[in-house]
Amino acid sequence: MNAVVYRFSEERTRIMYALKLLRFLTQLVALFVSQQVYFEEYNDAIYKRNTRPPSLNRFVFLFLSIDATVQLFVLGFLVLLSYVMVDKSEKKSQTFVINDEFIRDFLAEYFVTTTCIAALGTLIGAVVRQKQFFEFDKTGHHGVKMFRMMLIVVCAVIGVVPFFMFF
Questions:
Q1: Which of 6, 75, 95, 119 is least enclosed by beta carbons within 10 angstroms?
Q2: What are residue 92's DSSP bridge partners?
Q3: 53 vs 87, higher pLDDT
Q4: 3-state per-residue secondary structure call for 1-57
Q5: Which of 140, 133, 135, 120 is nearest to 54 (CA)?
Q6: Which among 156, 142, 125 is positioned nearest to 61, based on CA atoms?
Q7: Residue 150: its pLDDT value, please?
Q8: Diameter of the chain measured on Cα atoms
């Protein structure tokens, strides 16, 4: 138990959780943008072409691609920060927290959480599309809003788990 308390008191853990909070905030924006784009596709399919609504997997992967783009910028900033803080003569960071190991933990955290969100999002999307109480084919806007709310909860719960401590 003391090891866990010690890990949570470390500066690198606090920075990682700050990055996780930043990611969650950008995920909220990405979910909103994905919802608006999906509404356009839904309206086009239902009301203009009279076809079935697009799959909710498009929503999930649009959300994940926006999230990946933002995380790519964050990763670039971390790498740049790490490079700037490295002592050129010794080729290693003196006491700075963001180093190669931190970036490796950040990437591992990103891939694990993204895989979990993609799997759960796809699964929840299939349930939303099939269940009658969502009436997805008739009133899809309500189903999509519920789906977005479920993805917010999934992102929040998965974001709290410290996967980076397991690597």
A1: 95
A2: 87
A3: 53
A4: CHHHHHHHHCHHHHHHHHHHHHHHHHHHHHHHHHHHHHHHHHHHHHHHCCCCCCCHH
A5: 140
A6: 125
A7: 93
A8: 66
In sequence order, what are the beta bridge partners of 86? 93
Q: Which amino acid is at 82?
A: S
Distances (CA, A) of 147 to 16, 18, 47, 126, 131: 28, 26, 21, 10, 12
Query: Tens of pLDDT along 39-62?
Result: 999 889 888 888 888 888 999 999
Angstrom distance (rounded) from CA 45 to CA 41: 6
Query: Is residue 117 very low, low, confident or very high in pLDDT (cuts 50, 70, 90)?
Result: very high
Rounded Cα gap, residues 55 and 134, in angstroms: 14
**Cβ count near 147 (within 10 Å):** 25
Neighbour tally for 112: CB within 10 Å:
16
Mean per-residue pLDDT, 74-91: 78
What is the C-alpha separation between 66 and 23, in angstroms, rounded? 11
92 half-sphere exposure, CB direction, 13 A CA radius: 4
Mean per-residue pLDDT for 80-106?
73
> For residues 163 and 167, what is the distance between their CA atoms, to the nearest angstrom?
7
